[in-house]
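Researcher: Structure for this, please.
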Amino acid sequence: MNELELKYGCNPNQKPSKIFMEDGSELPVTVLNGRPGYINFLDAFNSWQLVKELKEATGLPAAASFKHVSPAGAAVAAELSDTLKKIYFVDDLELSPIASAYARARGADRMSSYGDWAALSDTCDKETALLLKREVSDGIIAPDYTEEALEILKTKRKGTYNIVKINTDYVPAAIEHKQVYGITFEQGRNDLKIDEDMLGNIVTENKAFTAEAKRDLMIALITLKYTQSNSVCYAKDGQAIGVGAGQQSRIHCTRLAGNKADIWYLRQNPKVLALPFREDIRRPDRDNTIDVYISDDYEDVLADGVWEQFFTVKPEPLTREEKKQWLSTFSGVSLGSDAFFPFGDNIERAKRSGVEFIAQPGGSIRDDNVIDTCNKYGMTMAFTGIRLFHH
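Model: Predicted structure, token format:
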């Protein structure tokens, strides 16, 4: 089969819609269940490239959680702490390596991952399928599925869950095309290989990248390669913890991703872990309520008559002072940027979210200012010389 008709394009009024191979060859995907749409396949093909390259760069199983053609999270397989298991709502599950990768990818920004497209670098197993079964998700792409995993996933969304199998032998053409306003664009495919050699040009006084930092910077850079630009990614412990996508200003990318990283860390605060939720509150509602609880307007939003819908007793607020104190212990974070930082204000904002290691292209007329700001905080920064715009 070299073409597949879709229900519609980006919006219901955009018909007809299909995916096809211009050269008449076979499509490299097989739909095992459901009827994926136009945006589903955009997510599927971008997320598959991300996890494939993460696996190649790290040697570890990788997973991604995509929404609107950008990753909400991406991660490699690593054992989860009891705290992470709790905030990712997987403390009652057995996790295989690929399941732990997806738990991390989805757990980074659970609000953004609501209704996500999942991507796995390895065969989807029963453990990953059971995790996905109870989350709100639109579909999945993977190189294969165990029979048990396939049967579990086919029960999702009343049997309509989108399940796509990718042919791992497929090699895309070196030249790619797309149309905008009836005009065809052509460019060479971005087949740039991201590896640790990119981190060799260290421009700061501190020259030390830990092994963990190198891994996390690989995750950040590969994630950025498939994130709508402008984009910045914070990573720690083998996973993205904050992705700022599609912003017109670099500092807004850094703030957006940094705020998400802060929320990820604040969710690990003992007060948040001890929130007295009612047993009948669903996971998405818990995610939303935790987000409100962490915000500065918690007492206004969860006023009397409202908090009773979520909690058995009204919890004490997490004060600004308590949040500031907790975030002051945030450390060991890696930061990647898809283009150069034009001002040191990005570094100042990154410092507030525990950033110690940075990889960015360099090339700004204010590189000296950015380097000086890193030196002020003892950060290690490498200039990769490579821009990673994705549009």
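Researcher: Any notable elements?
Model: The first strand starts at residue 3 and ends at 5. The domain at 176-266+327-383 is CATH 3.40.140.20 (Cytidine Deaminase; domain 2).
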